[in-house]
């Protein structure tokens, strides 16, 4: 499965299938939430949240790829990511793109 954020794949002629997406909502446990809260006092990277968002992106991407595969796609073009805060300490990550088949 080829994944790109462009509207083409070099050297490939494409047939559009449809938009595909994947999403997840992730949170950290209370202990990590408290430690991250304390970290905001002194500043610096909140590594627990960086890890959470990276994990959420991977899960969302996997779900998008699974949807594309179920449609018989060879790739996904125009991939975009979006994230939003759902509540304190929890975030949604959404990824979407256009599933394509090679001619």
Q: What is the β-strand count?
A: 4
- CATH topology category name: Translation Initiation Factor IF3
What is the straight-line distance between the termini?
15 Å
Helix- and strand-based class? alpha+beta
Order of helices and strands: EEHHEE
CATH superfamily: Hypothetical protein apc22750. Chain B
Helical segment tally? 2
In order across it, which strands form the biggest sheet? 1-3-4-2
- Morphology: elongated
What fraction of the residues are assigned to beta strands by DSSP?
A: 35-45%
Indicate the low-confidence ranges by residue numbers: none
Radius of gyration: 17 Å
Largest sheet: 4 strands, mixed
The level 1 CATH classification is Alpha Beta
Could you give the topology of this structure?
Blueprint (H helix, E strand, L loop, with lengths): L1 E2 L10 E14 L2 H13 L4 H24 L4 E13 L2 E13 L1
Parallel strand pairs: 1-3
Antiparallel strand pairs: 2-4, 3-4
Describe this protein's structure.
- This protein has 103 residues and is of the alpha+beta class.
- The protein has a single domain (2-102), classed as Translation Initiation Factor IF3, CATH 3.30.110.
- It contains two helices and four strands, in the order ββααββ.
- The chain has a four-stranded mixed beta sheet with strand order 1-3-4-2, with helices on one face.
Structural features:
single chain, 103 residues, alpha+beta, Translation Initiation Factor IF3, 4-stranded mixed sheet, 4 strands, 41% strand, elongated
Summary, kept brief:
It is built from two helices and four strands, in the order ββααββ.
